[in-house]
User: What shape does this take?
Amino acid sequence: MLQTRLCSLPSGSALRRYKPSVPNSSCYTRHYARFNSTQADIQASRVQVELSQTRKPRPDPATLSFGKVFTDHMLTIPWKASSGWGAPQIHPYRPFTLDPSVGVFHYAQCLFEGLKAYRDETGKVTLFRPDMNMKRMNTSAQRIALPAFNADEVIELMKQLIRLDKDWIPNVPGYSLYIRPTMIGCQPAIGISPPGEALLFVICSPVGPYYPDGFKPVALYGTTEYSRAAPGGIGAYKLGANYAPGLVAQKEAAKKGYVQNLWLYGPEHYVTEVGTMNAFAVFKQPDGTIEIATPPLDGMILPGVTRDSVLNIARDHVAGKYKVADLPDKLVVSERQMTMREVKEAAQSGNLVEFFGTGTAAVISPVDRIGYLGEDIHIPTGPDGMGPISRPIWQQLVGIQTGTIEHPWSVVVM
Assistant: This one.
Protein backbone atom coordinates (compact mmCIF):
# COMPACT_ATOMS: atom_id res chain seq x y z
CA MET A 1 0.00 0.00 0.00
CA LEU A 2 1.25 3.50 -0.82
CA GLN A 3 1.81 5.41 2.38
CA THR A 4 0.44 8.90 1.83
CA ARG A 5 1.47 10.80 4.92
CA LEU A 6 1.23 13.93 3.11
CA CYS A 7 0.84 19.19 7.24
CA SER A 8 0.58 21.78 9.50
CA LEU A 9 -0.10 25.39 8.72
CA PRO A 10 -0.99 27.81 11.49
CA SER A 11 -4.12 27.63 12.06
CA GLY A 12 -26.50 38.12 -3.20
CA SER A 13 -26.61 40.45 -5.32
CA ALA A 14 -28.75 39.71 -8.41
CA LEU A 15 -27.21 37.36 -10.96
CA ARG A 16 -27.05 40.02 -13.65
CA ARG A 17 -24.97 42.27 -11.39
CA TYR A 18 -22.69 39.64 -9.98
CA LYS A 19 -18.97 39.90 -10.65
CA PRO A 20 -16.83 36.97 -9.49
CA SER A 21 -13.95 37.69 -7.17
CA VAL A 22 -11.18 35.77 -5.48
CA PRO A 23 -11.46 35.52 -1.68
CA ASN A 24 -9.38 38.33 -0.20
CA SER A 25 -9.43 37.84 3.56
CA SER A 26 -6.08 38.41 5.24
CA CYS A 27 -6.02 34.77 6.41
CA TYR A 28 -6.57 33.45 2.89
CA THR A 29 -4.05 35.83 1.35
CA ARG A 30 -1.40 34.95 3.94
CA HIS A 31 -1.76 31.22 3.41
CA TYR A 32 -1.97 31.40 -0.37
CA ALA A 33 1.13 33.60 -0.49
CA ARG A 34 2.98 30.79 1.24
CA PHE A 35 1.77 28.36 -1.42
CA ASN A 36 3.25 30.59 -4.12
CA SER A 37 6.59 31.33 -2.50
CA THR A 38 10.00 30.12 -3.61
CA GLN A 39 9.36 26.57 -2.41
CA ALA A 40 9.98 23.70 -4.79
CA ASP A 41 7.63 23.47 -7.76
CA ILE A 42 6.86 20.33 -9.73
CA GLN A 43 9.74 19.20 -11.93
CA ALA A 44 9.16 16.44 -14.47
CA SER A 45 12.91 15.75 -14.59
CA ARG A 46 12.76 14.45 -10.99
CA VAL A 47 10.25 11.73 -11.79
CA GLN A 48 10.84 8.28 -10.32
CA VAL A 49 9.38 5.40 -12.32
CA GLU A 50 8.41 2.02 -10.90
CA LEU A 51 7.12 -0.32 -13.59
CA SER A 52 4.31 -2.72 -12.84
CA GLN A 53 5.49 -6.32 -12.66
CA THR A 54 2.00 -7.66 -13.26
CA ARG A 55 0.21 -6.22 -16.25
CA LYS A 56 -3.57 -6.38 -16.15
CA PRO A 57 -5.45 -8.03 -19.03
CA ARG A 58 -6.70 -5.54 -21.60
CA PRO A 59 -10.51 -5.39 -21.65
CA ASP A 60 -12.63 -6.05 -24.68
CA PRO A 61 -13.54 -2.53 -25.91
CA ALA A 62 -17.14 -3.60 -26.37
CA THR A 63 -17.46 -4.30 -22.63
CA LEU A 64 -16.06 -1.00 -21.34
CA SER A 65 -18.15 1.02 -18.91
CA PHE A 66 -17.11 4.61 -18.27
CA GLY A 67 -14.64 5.00 -15.40
CA LYS A 68 -14.62 1.40 -14.14
CA VAL A 69 -11.38 0.02 -15.61
CA PHE A 70 -7.99 1.60 -14.93
CA THR A 71 -4.56 1.26 -16.50
CA ASP A 72 -1.44 -0.34 -15.05
CA HIS A 73 0.20 2.85 -13.78
CA MET A 74 -0.62 6.15 -12.06
CA LEU A 75 1.17 9.39 -11.19
CA THR A 76 1.50 10.83 -7.68
CA ILE A 77 3.15 14.07 -6.53
CA PRO A 78 3.18 14.97 -2.81
CA TRP A 79 3.24 18.53 -1.48
CA LYS A 80 4.14 20.00 1.92
CA ALA A 81 3.81 23.60 3.04
CA SER A 82 7.31 23.42 4.57
CA SER A 83 9.11 22.30 1.41
CA GLY A 84 6.81 22.52 -1.60
CA TRP A 85 6.31 19.83 -4.22
CA GLY A 86 8.20 16.56 -3.85
CA ALA A 87 9.54 14.21 -6.49
CA PRO A 88 6.87 12.92 -8.90
CA GLN A 89 6.39 9.16 -8.98
CA ILE A 90 4.92 6.99 -11.72
CA HIS A 91 4.16 3.61 -10.23
CA PRO A 92 1.69 0.71 -10.40
CA TYR A 93 -1.97 1.62 -9.88
CA ARG A 94 -2.74 0.90 -6.23
CA PRO A 95 -4.71 2.18 -3.22
CA PHE A 96 -3.67 5.00 -0.92
CA THR A 97 -3.33 4.80 2.84
CA LEU A 98 -4.76 7.97 4.35
CA ASP A 99 -5.19 9.03 7.95
CA PRO A 100 -8.91 9.14 8.89
CA SER A 101 -8.52 12.79 9.93
CA VAL A 102 -7.31 14.21 6.60
CA GLY A 103 -9.15 17.24 5.24
CA VAL A 104 -10.41 15.62 2.05
CA PHE A 105 -12.69 13.40 4.16
CA HIS A 106 -14.05 16.12 6.44
CA TYR A 107 -13.95 19.38 4.50
CA ALA A 108 -14.11 18.30 0.84
CA GLN A 109 -10.60 19.55 0.08
CA CYS A 110 -10.73 17.97 -3.35
CA LEU A 111 -10.62 19.08 -6.98
CA PHE A 112 -10.24 17.22 -10.26
CA GLU A 113 -10.05 17.49 -14.03
CA GLY A 114 -11.03 15.31 -16.96
CA LEU A 115 -9.40 15.13 -20.39
CA LYS A 116 -8.74 12.53 -23.07
CA ALA A 117 -5.88 11.03 -25.05
CA TYR A 118 -6.61 9.80 -28.57
CA ARG A 119 -4.77 7.42 -30.89
CA ASP A 120 -5.16 7.69 -34.66
CA GLU A 121 -4.83 4.96 -37.27
CA THR A 122 -1.08 5.58 -37.60
CA GLY A 123 -0.53 5.06 -33.87
CA LYS A 124 0.02 8.74 -33.06
CA VAL A 125 -1.27 9.63 -29.59
CA THR A 126 -2.51 13.14 -28.79
CA LEU A 127 -4.05 15.10 -25.93
CA PHE A 128 -6.81 17.65 -26.48
CA ARG A 129 -6.08 21.10 -25.00
CA PRO A 130 -4.37 19.93 -21.79
CA ASP A 131 -3.24 23.48 -21.07
CA MET A 132 -6.88 24.49 -20.54
CA ASN A 133 -7.41 21.70 -18.01
CA MET A 134 -4.26 22.58 -16.08
CA LYS A 135 -5.18 26.27 -16.03
CA ARG A 136 -8.60 25.42 -14.62
CA MET A 137 -7.05 23.00 -12.12
CA ASN A 138 -4.79 25.74 -10.77
CA THR A 139 -7.78 28.09 -10.53
CA SER A 140 -9.75 25.46 -8.61
CA ALA A 141 -6.80 24.89 -6.28
CA GLN A 142 -6.62 28.60 -5.51
CA ARG A 143 -10.33 28.68 -4.67
CA ILE A 144 -10.00 26.09 -1.87
CA ALA A 145 -6.50 27.04 -0.67
CA LEU A 146 -4.68 24.06 -2.20
CA PRO A 147 -1.22 24.65 -3.73
CA ALA A 148 -0.58 25.91 -7.24
CA PHE A 149 1.79 24.09 -9.60
CA ASN A 150 3.69 24.40 -12.87
CA ALA A 151 1.15 23.32 -15.49
CA ASP A 152 3.70 22.54 -18.22
CA GLU A 153 5.57 20.15 -15.93
CA VAL A 154 2.38 18.26 -15.04
CA ILE A 155 1.48 17.98 -18.73
CA GLU A 156 4.92 16.49 -19.40
CA LEU A 157 4.41 13.99 -16.57
CA MET A 158 0.99 13.03 -17.93
CA LYS A 159 2.61 12.42 -21.32
CA GLN A 160 5.13 10.08 -19.69
CA LEU A 161 2.31 8.20 -17.94
CA ILE A 162 0.36 7.88 -21.20
CA ARG A 163 3.43 6.62 -23.07
CA LEU A 164 3.78 3.83 -20.50
CA ASP A 165 0.12 2.83 -20.83
CA LYS A 166 -0.48 3.73 -24.47
CA ASP A 167 -1.61 0.20 -25.32
CA TRP A 168 -4.64 0.79 -23.07
CA ILE A 169 -6.07 3.16 -25.69
CA PRO A 170 -8.38 0.89 -27.71
CA ASN A 171 -7.43 0.82 -31.37
CA VAL A 172 -11.07 1.28 -32.35
CA PRO A 173 -12.70 4.44 -33.76
CA GLY A 174 -14.48 6.49 -31.10
CA TYR A 175 -12.45 5.12 -28.19
CA SER A 176 -9.97 7.05 -26.07
CA LEU A 177 -8.11 7.17 -22.77
CA TYR A 178 -9.86 9.25 -20.12
CA ILE A 179 -7.37 11.02 -17.82
CA ARG A 180 -8.35 12.13 -14.32
CA PRO A 181 -5.90 14.54 -12.58
CA THR A 182 -6.95 15.07 -8.96
CA MET A 183 -5.68 17.01 -5.95
CA ILE A 184 -6.65 16.38 -2.33
CA GLY A 185 -5.81 17.91 1.03
CA CYS A 186 -3.97 15.36 3.21
CA GLN A 187 -3.25 17.13 6.49
CA PRO A 188 -3.83 14.50 9.23
CA ALA A 189 -5.66 16.80 11.64
CA ILE A 190 -9.25 17.83 12.27
CA GLY A 191 -9.59 21.59 11.96
CA ILE A 192 -10.77 23.75 9.11
CA SER A 193 -7.72 25.55 7.71
CA PRO A 194 -5.68 25.55 4.51
CA PRO A 195 -3.98 22.12 4.43
CA GLY A 196 -0.26 21.84 5.04
CA GLU A 197 -0.04 18.64 3.00
CA ALA A 198 -1.59 17.71 -0.32
CA LEU A 199 -1.37 15.10 -3.03
CA LEU A 200 -1.75 15.54 -6.78
CA PHE A 201 -2.39 12.29 -8.61
CA VAL A 202 -3.41 11.15 -12.09
CA ILE A 203 -5.21 7.95 -13.06
CA CYS A 204 -6.30 6.80 -16.53
CA SER A 205 -9.24 4.78 -17.82
CA PRO A 206 -9.98 3.46 -21.33
CA VAL A 207 -13.41 4.58 -22.50
CA GLY A 208 -15.68 4.07 -25.46
CA PRO A 209 -17.94 6.49 -27.34
CA TYR A 210 -20.62 8.15 -25.22
CA TYR A 211 -23.26 7.18 -27.80
CA PRO A 212 -22.10 3.80 -29.17
CA ASP A 213 -25.31 3.29 -31.18
CA GLY A 214 -25.66 6.83 -32.48
CA PHE A 215 -26.87 10.05 -30.88
CA LYS A 216 -29.81 9.77 -28.54
CA PRO A 217 -31.36 13.10 -27.57
CA VAL A 218 -32.05 13.39 -23.85
CA ALA A 219 -35.00 14.74 -21.92
CA LEU A 220 -34.23 17.31 -19.20
CA TYR A 221 -36.14 18.34 -16.12
CA GLY A 222 -35.97 22.06 -15.40
CA THR A 223 -34.93 22.04 -11.75
CA THR A 224 -36.28 24.95 -9.74
CA GLU A 225 -36.32 23.20 -6.35
CA TYR A 226 -32.52 23.20 -5.98
CA SER A 227 -29.66 25.48 -7.03
CA ARG A 228 -26.41 24.14 -8.40
CA ALA A 229 -24.49 27.32 -7.57
CA ALA A 230 -24.92 30.88 -6.34
CA PRO A 231 -23.05 34.19 -6.81
CA GLY A 232 -19.82 34.17 -4.85
CA GLY A 233 -19.91 30.38 -4.46
CA ILE A 234 -17.96 27.59 -6.12
CA GLY A 235 -19.93 26.96 -9.31
CA ALA A 236 -17.07 28.11 -11.55
CA TYR A 237 -14.59 25.59 -10.09
CA LYS A 238 -14.20 21.87 -10.70
CA LEU A 239 -14.42 20.81 -7.07
CA GLY A 240 -15.72 17.56 -5.64
CA ALA A 241 -18.08 19.61 -3.46
CA ASN A 242 -19.95 20.73 -6.59
CA TYR A 243 -21.01 17.25 -7.63
CA ALA A 244 -22.43 15.26 -4.69
CA PRO A 245 -25.24 17.79 -3.99
CA GLY A 246 -26.45 17.41 -7.59
CA LEU A 247 -27.17 13.70 -7.27
CA VAL A 248 -30.47 14.16 -5.45
CA ALA A 249 -31.71 16.51 -8.19
CA GLN A 250 -30.65 13.99 -10.82
CA LYS A 251 -32.47 11.18 -8.99
CA GLU A 252 -35.64 13.22 -8.76
CA ALA A 253 -35.46 14.10 -12.45
CA ALA A 254 -35.16 10.38 -13.24
CA LYS A 255 -38.23 9.61 -11.11
CA LYS A 256 -40.19 12.10 -13.21
CA GLY A 257 -39.10 10.36 -16.42
CA TYR A 258 -36.21 12.62 -17.45
CA VAL A 259 -32.62 11.62 -18.17
CA GLN A 260 -30.96 14.59 -16.50
CA ASN A 261 -31.80 17.91 -14.88
CA LEU A 262 -31.42 21.43 -16.22
CA TRP A 263 -30.27 23.78 -13.48
CA LEU A 264 -32.34 26.96 -13.31
CA TYR A 265 -31.36 29.86 -11.06
CA GLY A 266 -33.30 32.56 -9.26
CA PRO A 267 -36.90 33.70 -9.61
CA GLU A 268 -36.23 34.49 -13.28
CA HIS A 269 -35.23 30.84 -13.85
CA TYR A 270 -31.98 31.62 -15.63
CA VAL A 271 -30.56 28.69 -17.59
CA THR A 272 -27.20 27.72 -16.08
CA GLU A 273 -26.00 24.15 -16.71
CA VAL A 274 -27.24 20.77 -17.96
CA GLY A 275 -26.47 18.31 -15.16
CA THR A 276 -22.66 18.46 -15.18
CA MET A 277 -22.42 19.97 -18.67
CA ASN A 278 -22.50 23.49 -20.10
CA ALA A 279 -25.79 24.52 -21.72
CA PHE A 280 -26.30 25.89 -25.25
CA ALA A 281 -29.45 27.11 -27.00
CA VAL A 282 -29.76 28.00 -30.68
CA PHE A 283 -32.32 30.65 -31.68
CA LYS A 284 -33.57 31.87 -35.06
CA GLN A 285 -33.85 35.64 -35.19
CA PRO A 286 -36.48 37.55 -37.25
CA ASP A 287 -34.01 38.34 -40.07
CA GLY A 288 -33.02 34.69 -40.39
CA THR A 289 -29.77 35.00 -38.45
CA ILE A 290 -28.98 32.01 -36.26
CA GLU A 291 -27.79 32.74 -32.73
CA ILE A 292 -25.87 30.16 -30.71
CA ALA A 293 -26.06 31.22 -27.07
CA THR A 294 -24.61 29.98 -23.79
CA PRO A 295 -24.64 31.49 -20.28
CA PRO A 296 -21.67 33.79 -19.52
CA LEU A 297 -18.81 32.91 -17.19
CA ASP A 298 -20.22 35.00 -14.36
CA GLY A 299 -18.77 32.98 -11.49
CA MET A 300 -21.60 30.43 -11.43
CA ILE A 301 -20.77 28.61 -14.66
CA LEU A 302 -17.92 26.11 -15.01
CA PRO A 303 -15.52 27.26 -17.78
CA GLY A 304 -15.75 24.02 -19.74
CA VAL A 305 -13.01 23.15 -22.23
CA THR A 306 -15.59 21.77 -24.67
CA ARG A 307 -17.70 24.90 -24.15
CA ASP A 308 -14.74 27.10 -25.05
CA SER A 309 -13.93 24.91 -28.05
CA VAL A 310 -17.49 25.12 -29.42
CA LEU A 311 -17.48 28.90 -29.04
CA ASN A 312 -14.10 29.26 -30.74
CA ILE A 313 -15.04 27.00 -33.65
CA ALA A 314 -18.25 28.99 -34.22
CA ARG A 315 -16.47 32.35 -33.91
CA ASP A 316 -13.69 31.33 -36.30
CA HIS A 317 -16.38 30.35 -38.79
CA VAL A 318 -18.13 33.72 -38.42
CA ALA A 319 -14.83 35.59 -38.78
CA GLY A 320 -13.90 33.58 -41.86
CA LYS A 321 -10.73 32.20 -40.26
CA TYR A 322 -11.84 28.62 -40.80
CA LYS A 323 -15.14 27.83 -42.49
CA VAL A 324 -17.03 24.86 -41.12
CA ALA A 325 -19.06 22.96 -43.71
CA ASP A 326 -22.84 23.18 -43.24
CA LEU A 327 -22.70 26.02 -40.70
CA PRO A 328 -24.73 29.05 -41.86
CA ASP A 329 -22.91 32.26 -42.72
CA LYS A 330 -25.49 34.36 -40.86
CA LEU A 331 -24.43 33.16 -37.43
CA VAL A 332 -24.12 35.08 -34.16
CA VAL A 333 -22.25 33.69 -31.16
CA SER A 334 -23.39 34.98 -27.76
CA GLU A 335 -22.36 34.51 -24.17
CA ARG A 336 -25.39 35.92 -22.42
CA GLN A 337 -28.06 35.22 -19.85
CA MET A 338 -31.20 33.46 -21.00
CA THR A 339 -34.27 32.42 -19.08
CA MET A 340 -36.46 29.37 -19.45
CA ARG A 341 -39.26 31.72 -20.40
CA GLU A 342 -37.21 32.81 -23.43
CA VAL A 343 -36.47 29.19 -24.34
CA LYS A 344 -40.14 28.23 -23.94
CA GLU A 345 -41.41 31.16 -26.04
CA ALA A 346 -38.86 30.43 -28.76
CA ALA A 347 -39.95 26.79 -28.87
CA GLN A 348 -43.63 27.75 -29.08
CA SER A 349 -42.99 30.24 -31.90
CA GLY A 350 -40.79 27.86 -33.87
CA ASN A 351 -37.67 29.95 -33.29
CA LEU A 352 -35.81 27.48 -31.07
CA VAL A 353 -33.53 25.63 -33.47
CA GLU A 354 -31.97 23.27 -30.91
CA PHE A 355 -30.71 22.88 -27.35
CA PHE A 356 -27.68 20.87 -26.24
CA GLY A 357 -25.08 20.31 -23.54
CA THR A 358 -21.30 20.13 -23.91
CA GLY A 359 -18.69 18.27 -21.87
CA THR A 360 -15.60 16.08 -22.06
CA ALA A 361 -17.38 12.73 -21.87
CA ALA A 362 -20.21 13.27 -24.36
CA VAL A 363 -18.67 16.20 -26.31
CA ILE A 364 -22.17 17.29 -27.42
CA SER A 365 -25.42 15.93 -25.99
CA PRO A 366 -28.59 16.97 -27.88
CA VAL A 367 -31.84 17.64 -26.02
CA ASP A 368 -35.32 16.91 -27.39
CA ARG A 369 -37.53 17.74 -24.40
CA ILE A 370 -37.43 19.93 -21.27
CA GLY A 371 -39.94 19.52 -18.48
CA TYR A 372 -40.71 22.94 -17.05
CA LEU A 373 -43.35 23.91 -14.48
CA GLY A 374 -45.57 20.95 -15.23
CA GLU A 375 -45.38 20.88 -19.02
CA ASP A 376 -42.94 19.60 -21.63
CA ILE A 377 -41.17 21.94 -24.03
CA HIS A 378 -40.41 19.98 -27.20
CA ILE A 379 -37.20 20.78 -29.09
CA PRO A 380 -36.51 19.81 -32.70
CA THR A 381 -33.73 17.36 -33.53
CA GLY A 382 -32.53 15.92 -36.83
CA PRO A 383 -32.98 12.34 -38.05
CA ASP A 384 -29.62 11.41 -36.53
CA GLY A 385 -30.57 12.95 -33.17
CA MET A 386 -28.49 16.10 -33.57
CA GLY A 387 -29.42 19.60 -34.66
CA PRO A 388 -28.25 21.61 -37.70
CA ILE A 389 -25.77 23.72 -35.71
CA SER A 390 -24.39 21.21 -33.21
CA ARG A 391 -23.83 18.54 -35.88
CA PRO A 392 -21.17 20.37 -37.98
CA ILE A 393 -19.51 21.78 -34.84
CA TRP A 394 -19.36 18.27 -33.35
CA GLN A 395 -17.85 16.90 -36.57
CA GLN A 396 -15.21 19.63 -36.57
CA LEU A 397 -14.42 19.17 -32.88
CA VAL A 398 -14.15 15.38 -33.03
CA GLY A 399 -12.01 15.66 -36.13
CA ILE A 400 -9.55 17.82 -34.19
CA GLN A 401 -9.63 15.52 -31.18
CA THR A 402 -8.99 12.35 -33.18
CA GLY A 403 -6.34 13.89 -35.42
CA THR A 404 -8.17 13.80 -38.75
CA ILE A 405 -8.11 17.62 -38.72
CA GLU A 406 -4.78 19.25 -37.89
CA HIS A 407 -5.08 21.91 -35.22
CA PRO A 408 -2.93 23.48 -32.46
CA TRP A 409 -5.37 22.13 -29.86
CA SER A 410 -4.12 18.62 -30.58
CA VAL A 411 -0.94 18.09 -28.49
CA VAL A 412 1.28 15.19 -29.56
CA VAL A 413 2.23 12.71 -26.87
CA MET A 414 4.11 10.29 -29.11
The chain has two domains: 44-207, 218-402. The two ends are 31 Å apart (CA to CA).
